[in-house]
Amino acid sequence: MSYTPPLERMRFVIEQVLDAPASWRAMPDFAEVDADLAREVLEQAGRFAQDVIAPLNGPADLQGCTWQSGGAVKTPDGFPAAWRAFVEGGWPALPCAPEDGGQGLPQLLNAALFEMLVGANHAWTMYPGLLHGACEAIGHHAVPALRERYLPKVVSGEWLATMNLTEPQAGSDLGLSRTRCKPVDAAAPVVNGAAVTVTGQKIFISGGDQDMTDNIVHLVLARLPGAPDGTKGLTLVLVPKILPDGRRNGAWCDGIEKKMGIKGSATAQMRFEQAEGWILGEPNAGLAAMFLMMNSARLHVGMQGLGHLEAATRIASAYAQERLQLRAPSRPAGSDAAAARGPDPIAWHPAMRRILLDLQARTEGARVIAYWTALLLDEAEHHPDAALRAQRHDLVALLTPVVKAFLTHLGHHGANEALGVLGGHGYVHDWGIEQHVRDSRVALIYEGTNEIQAIDLLMRKVLDRPGRLALLLEVLRDEAATLDTQAETAADGDPAGLARWAALLRDEAATLERATATLQRERAARPDLPFLVADDYLHALGHTLLAWAWARLLRASLGDQDAARRQRLQALCAHGRDWLLPASRWRWTRIESGVPELAWPGL
Amino acid sequence: MSYTPPLERMRFVIEQVLDAPASWRAMPDFAEVDADLAREVLEQAGRFAQDVIAPLNGPADLQGCTWQSGGAVKTPDGFPAAWRAFVEGGWPALPCAPEDGGQGLPQLLNAALFEMLVGANHAWTMYPGLLHGACEAIGHHAVPALRERYLPKVVSGEWLATMNLTEPQAGSDLGLSRTRCKPVDAAAPVVNGAAVTVTGQKIFISGGDQDMTDNIVHLVLARLPGAPDGTKGLTLVLVPKILPDGRRNGAWCDGIEKKMGIKGSATAQMRFEQAEGWILGEPNAGLAAMFLMMNSARLHVGMQGLGHLEAATRIASAYAQERLQLRAPSRPAGSDAAAARGPDPIAWHPAMRRILLDLQARTEGARVIAYWTALLLDEAEHHPDAALRAQRHDLVALLTPVVKAFLTHLGHHGANEALGVLGGHGYVHDWGIEQHVRDSRVALIYEGTNEIQAIDLLMRKVLDRPGRLALLLEVLRDEAATLDTQAETAADGDPAGLARWAALLRDEAATLERATATLQRERAARPDLPFLVADDYLHALGHTLLAWAWARLLRASLGDQDAARRQRLQALCAHGRDWLLPASRWRWTRIESGVPELAWPGL
């Protein structure tokens, strides 16, 4: 099926809403990045997504991966060739550091790249999905010899990498992992870089085997002899599929899963049998090494939500304009009187129009939230001012679980609503929309389930670090102040209603602050309380962020010379405010008005 | 995968909540139906669902149907044999009239049968899904010769039937249908029973071809020469696959759809080429003939939602009790202190517990709504009192779009939430839950999309027939009065909080009445208004019905000698009241506090 990259909408957010080029200018690492370069990168990325991987998406879903006896996995037709083209284009290295062979481009551009890749072909994009994390893990933790041997190959994309965390009994609870590793030389000190053998079983390993690269670099969580129980006894080990001397290592794919979606992605059951490898980072500090890359990995998963939301919304919008059924109860001003005798486009029917407006308002708002977070991440890593870096780091830590969970929620459920616009045609394969629903579902689960994101947000990022939320409150109130200033100085009397938006954002900030204080106060007597409403809190905060994003979009639209775009954005912002925000308010109300008990039923 | 029929919970609703046996006693047609017979029927049906078709469900999803050149469809392995067993068991004829060869059992029992069949295997259940509708259509409309030739075969299940409505350009808008029919004898009068030939293309025809029965009876909407445009020019035609003289008729299956789910159900593209058939009912009155069977067909689709909700909830509940991950922030009273050192069942984690309670409260409430509607349908068709029949008919007409849309919504989205309880395991095929998500999605679309149900409810059933809603308001207020009486006469001081439930139901009724009056008043100046909020209205009303259902369950539980069941039901009713109802209130608020405008964006 076809995919159209939303280049113009992406650029509008990058340049007009966030003014990312101004932020890049303040960071010496990005001295050579400007709006023109960003446009060029996105255009080329869009072409790759549209021309190379989008045409493979539907067929790969039907064909799936094949597990061959002996354990070799065959990916769908065209996947290996598309990978070679990706490598030749230099795409794997986009955000990696130049000293490691990367292009050193901002995370923001990498986020936009992955929005398009996932919108075009989620399954294919699973293969490079963990590259950046693997680069970070190897780059930060490997001893020089290991780093030299593996990092350039992974940065260039010549070899792909995997993350081996989950085991049959250890999913969200990695502390239950049983895979063992044993030093090869019992007499040598067990330190970073030490040679070990790994034995155990891992499941749900994306790309655990594939036919796209000659070698695969497995990063495996395993337990050294005598290691403590739980998560504090896990060591990260680098285990290549092919050893440096050319031998086949004992890392075997015993089968692949039959899944709801992303069928072109091989989800492997891995068996490590005396597999040779080397410790990556400090012994027993494997989980911390993994979590180092969690911010970018979770942001990445959030981009998957946005990619599906954008792509599914575009399919539904196009269909709704072309499909003629029944007469609408009213017609848009200026619609053709002659055509008015026949059936109308279903986009004119209020039930469909409302869904389309919901989807489009969410898509535009979600993109602002995601790109803003990516820009903050760039500043957290590259800004010359250490205090600003620290502040940005805190804000990113707060926003990351929201981006991961809220955007994947919007992406999956939005794709499902978009399917409904196509009716029976949405349920069949041809239009590609049911595949978006299936493919997007996994993003709510992996990299920490959305329920775990909600607990991470409320417990670790908000309640246990009271200062951190203040950063976000300040963002909301600063925007309100800017809106007010613009409303007061507007020559034409604030027709866009900026002052009303300012009041709304102040109200959102006050509610957020009050609800958080309520939870902070009541949790002492009721330790369960935050766990009961973590999901409500995350979704309510997501809507607060959408309100902020719509205000930013509205402000950016004011000076826009493109009248059609200006009108569209203003309509979508008003729609979000009037239709979507009120439907989420009950979550704050629940938190503030007393959270009911949760029963222990005989299940 | 396995399926466990919820016999005990079904019986509780039939006997304790609704006291259906008392209603049956009042209807001479059901003189022989009592609680024992009902139990016997349900037990046998449950055994069929569990033993015969549930084991085929997962494999059939992977295998799908095969279209063979020449147009013959092969259904999944085991489907034809299961059909023969169904026919031999006399199940197809369950609700059909005894004079037509049926068993004349209540719709309520047929509804319960289909809840189990769909929970066990939705795809297989598509084949008999339209049987009862076809029986009604042929029984009511066919001339005697036609009736004699086809009705017994369809009632017995020897032949299956299809409904041919949709065409590529005519989905929700059947008035756009182009399939033509032409009298064979141009000189003969064009009347009911006249021989015609049919030519045209139909799509999305469930069971359009299959290898389960020797013949297929297609009911086709087509247009006679000179017929009016639109829906008033459609004629229903009976077109057998095999003609009475043994010739193959010109009804060809040109292909089957690749779908998101119900893959074992053949969704056919049909080409009628000079196919021979006979007019069924009055010429140009085909749509009315179709709509005659819509109430039971839509109730049937609602049962599909319930079947998926029940089955998915059961899988998730079982998984959550067995799966041990992480320590829960608190433990149920009396839990084993020794086990408390290790990880806890995920059912103890608040985020999971809340999902499970949501799902179980909705399942129990939805079953009461569905069975009650089925019982009302039985009374509408079989009660000796004509006035009561008319009243029941009106109430069923009001409830039907809610049962269809609201229950399928709960079923699909509930299955999706249940998937989340299983995490990564939910995303793979083995547990069967992702299949429930995919299979259940279609029920929101077919037999009139849920958006069309919402418009049907609000426009045709409520606003255009002001008296009809009063019937439901009376039900709510009667229940409130009963609750109050029981609360007052309770010897133990109303510990179950019946008086609070009474107040809640009165409040629901008042809100429903007020919101409806608001819409009635404002639609004159704003004709679009009901279309903008029809979906909100349906879902809000669905929750009002859930509130009523929980009150009924609670009342029925009071005298229950089974303490575990009593406590479970009381916990679920309280959960629904405290957690679910407040999350839906904003829909009424929107309707009452002024519905915003809906923009016409440049999509």
Walk me through this protein's architecture.
Two copies of one chain form a homodimer. By secondary structure, chain A is α+β, with helices and mostly antiparallel strands. The first copy, chain A, has four domains: 7-136, Butyryl-Coa Dehydrogenase, subunit A, domain 1, CATH 1.10.540.10; 159-284, Butyryl-CoA Dehydrogenase, subunit A, domain 2 (Beta Barrel); 293-331 and 342-448, Butyryl-CoA Dehydrogenase, subunit A, domain 3 (Up-down Bundle); 450-596. In chain A, 56% of the residues lie in helices and 10% in strands. Chain A has 19 helices and nine strands. Chain A has helices spanning 7-17, 20-25, 35-63, 79-88, 107-129, 131-141, 144-156, 286-292, 294-322, 350-382, 386-421, 424-427, 433-441, 450-463, 466-489, 498-522, 529-558, 563-580, 585-592, and strands at residues 66-68, 72-74, 160-164, 180-183, 195-206, 216-222, 235-240, 251-256, 267-279. In chain A, strands 3, 4, 5, 6, 7, 8 and 9 form a seven-stranded mixed sheet that branches. A two-stranded antiparallel sheet of chain A has the order 1-2. In chain A, helix 11 crosses helix 17. The longest helix of chain A is centred in the C-terminal third of the chain and has 36 residues, at 386-421. Chain A is globular and about 80 Å long. The model of chain A has no long low-confidence stretch (mean pLDDT 95). At the A-B interface, helix 9, helix 10, helix 11, helix 12 and helix 13 of A face helix 9, helix 10, helix 11, helix 12 and helix 13 of B. Chains A, B: Pfam families: Acyl-CoA_dh_1, Acyl-CoA_dh_C, Acyl-CoA_dh_M, Acyl-CoA_dh_N. Chains A, B: Keywords: FAD, Flavoprotein, Oxidoreductase.
